[in-house]
């Protein structure tokens, strides 16, 4: 069935339901960054396979809204589909919500599957539509009615991540959750995001690409823990263990009926930014909804000592893989054909050589020359550019290990560079070092630190449009809250034990993209008469390409930082290398 045929079928069904427009998001009911095939309704309907995009269908028009990383891909995949591409962020292109108010008459009905929108997203949409006298129906489950040959839910089993990796047992984590529930006056706590379920139960799975999670819901009360999951995912030993720990097993699809039947006077913790709106509307009307950041969000953000030590081990493994890759790239460029796609595949192969490797942590961004300036460039094998022995190559990648999740970007010189390329590279490096060297009082938020990564660029009239840092999970999701380092204030302070990315960049369209990314751990620094202070420790272990640096732009302090960092990289990585790879690392980490 072609996309026009699917749109025709959808419109017929909309007509029977009295719906004038339909919104299809990329999300699943758990609001996952990477949903499984079972939930990719937007992809089935439109033929667009990018990870981010929203489709809107009316009786006469259909459109896909997506961002710049997918413009080329979307153009190709939407050809002859009857669906128009709306390039988000482009001048004159309205947001899909505004488009709806402009193109629908008063009294129209807009339908959406409430399971694919957060509580706050749906509220915002409903408020906007109401101003135009348009009604929103959040009970439109189109995929159930028109999606033929829909992929089944993944049935892969789960496995336990032992306390040698997690540092805390399930029982200990649940006890802390209940303590915090009591402090908030809650009787029940609903957990719907997959990484939070996995973290609390110390289980991991393989239901979702790049993230070692599994489909499940949790409802925690002071007396019970109720787990909603496909029982086939549980081995007999895991089932027995959960029973002994008084964790009750329910069928995955019974979750919504369960919360509908909760005690009417229940006081339920719901995170409106991490819970789908159908969960909220399913709760008894009389129940008290305590809207707050999910308890587990805060707990898993501050890593314990065991998790931190395992992260350090993961960084050594990843550093070995990255060193082997960069050595291979240096020795092969100009001698064999290497494309952006084949380079990314080669890096994944080097990571796969490491013990306890469980796949990439996200789709590798591999951009040569001007493609590096596309911040979230999604390389395709058929359109990948060939690397040449000149200019800059940006590769942003990561791995999943039992010990932790990694995320690293290196921009490397493949040959001669222009003065502009070297200057821009050095400005990015100065930003990376500036943030890493920060010492700051407790209570500091990411918005206060963001300028440290940008100030050298700002002095040259340069800036970048993305955030400087995001949280990262422990053998979980590569993008994790609640902290972030960016110009926008999210009200979350940076606390000890948090692991964040440090990734300033410069992007010049048609020329080059430069980003240097390390993961940084927040540690306690000292207590003084003026309060308690924190600092960062760089966890990532991989050389920065000295050939791309204009050393005249670095201060003595910045040179010292880089030399000390490179010495640390050599000391920890070189014992695991041999021959030309060890020699390459030695040369790459020599002092400036």
TrEMBL record:
Residues 309-521 form the Peptidase M24 domain. Residues 6-132 form the Creatinase N-terminal domain. Residues 533-592 form the Peptidase M24 C-terminal domain. Pfam families: Creatinase_N, Creatinase_N_2, Peptidase_M24, Peptidase_M24_C. Gene3D superfamilies: Creatinase/methionine aminopeptidase superfamily, Creatinase/prolidase N-terminal domain. The keyword Metal-binding applies. The keyword Metal-binding applies. Transmembrane segments: none annotated. It comes from the Bacteria. One of its GO terms (molecular function) is aminopeptidase activity. Keywords: Aminopeptidase, Hydrolase, Metal-binding, Protease. PANTHER family: XAA-PRO AMINOPEPTIDASE 1. Belongs to the peptidase M24B family. This is Aminopeptidase P family protein. It comes from Carboxylicivirga mesophila.
């Amino acid at each position: 069935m072609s996309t026009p045929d699917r749109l025709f079928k959808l419109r017929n069904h909309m007509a029977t339901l009295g719906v004038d427009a339909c919104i299809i998001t990329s999300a699943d009911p758990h609001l996952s960054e990477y949903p499984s095939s079972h939930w990719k309704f937007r992809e089935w309907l439109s033929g667009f396979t990018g990870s981010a995009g929203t489709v809107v269908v009316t009786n006469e028009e259909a459109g896909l809204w997506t961002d710049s990383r997918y413009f080329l891909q979307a153009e190709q995949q939407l050809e002859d589909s009857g669906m128009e591409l709306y390039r988000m962020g482009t001048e004159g292109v309205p947001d899909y919500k505004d488009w709806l108010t402009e193109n629908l008459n008063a009294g129209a009905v807009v339908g959406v599957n409430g399971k694919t929108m957060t509580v706050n997203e749906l509220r915002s949409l409903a408020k906007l539509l109401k101003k135009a006298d348009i009604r929103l129906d959040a009970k439109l489950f189109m995929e159930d009615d028109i999606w033929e040959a829909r992929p089944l839910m993944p049935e892969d089993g789960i496995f336990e991540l032992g306390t040698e990796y997690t540092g805390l047992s399930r029982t200990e984590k649940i006890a802390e959750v209940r303590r915090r529930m009591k402090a908030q006056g809650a009787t029940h706590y609903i957990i719907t995001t997959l990484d939070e379920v996995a973290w609390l139960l110390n289980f991991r799975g393989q239901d979702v690409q790049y993230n070692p999670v599994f489909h499940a819901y949790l409802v925690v009360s002071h007396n019970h823990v109720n787990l909603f999951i496909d029982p086939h995912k549980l081995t007999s030993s895991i089932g027995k263990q959960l029973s002994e720990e008084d964790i009750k097993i329910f069928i995955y699809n019974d979750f919504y009926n369960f919360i509908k039947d909760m005690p009417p006077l229940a006081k339920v913790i719901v995170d409106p930014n991490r819970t789908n709106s159908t969960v909220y509307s399913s709760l008894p009307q009389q129940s008290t909804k305590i809207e707050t950041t999910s308890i587990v969000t805060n707990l898993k953000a501050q890593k314990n000592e065991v998790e931190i030590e395992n992260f350090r081990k993961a960084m050594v493994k990843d550093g070995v893989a990255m060193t082997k890759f960069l050595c291979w790239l240096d020795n092969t460029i100009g001698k064999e054909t290497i494309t952006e796609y084949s380079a990314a595949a080669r890096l994944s192969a080097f990571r796969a050589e490491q013990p306890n490797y469980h796949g990439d942590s996200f789709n590798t961004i591999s951009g040569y020359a001007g493609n590096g300036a596309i911040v979230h460039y999604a390389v395709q094998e058929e359109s990948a550019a060939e690397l040449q022995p000149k200019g800059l190559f940006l590769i942003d990648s990561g791995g999943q290990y039992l010990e932790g999740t990694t995320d690293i970007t290196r921009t490397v010189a493949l040959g001669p560079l222009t003065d502009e390329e070297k200057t821009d590279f050095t400005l990015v490096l100065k930003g990376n070092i500036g943030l890493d060297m920060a010492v700051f009082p407790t209570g500091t938020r990411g918005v206060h630190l963001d300028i440290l990564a940008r100030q050298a660029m700002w002095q040259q009239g340069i800036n970048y449009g993305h955030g400087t840092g995001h949280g990262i999970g422990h053998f979980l999701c590569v993008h994790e809250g609640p902290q972030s380092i960016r110009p926008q204030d999210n009200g979350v302070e940076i606390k000890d034990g948090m692991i964040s990315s440090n990734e300033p960049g410069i992007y010049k369209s048609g020329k080059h993209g430069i980003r240097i990314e390390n993961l940084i751990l927040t540690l306690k620094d000292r207590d003084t008469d003026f309060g308690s202070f924190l600092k960062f420790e760089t966890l990532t272990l991989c050389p920065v390409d000295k050939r791309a640096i204009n050393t005249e732009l670095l201060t003595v302090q910045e040179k010292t930082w880089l030399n000390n960092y490179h010495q640390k990289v050599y000391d920890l990585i070189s014992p695991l290398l041999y021959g030309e790879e060890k020699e390459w690392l030695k040369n790459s980490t020599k002092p400036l």
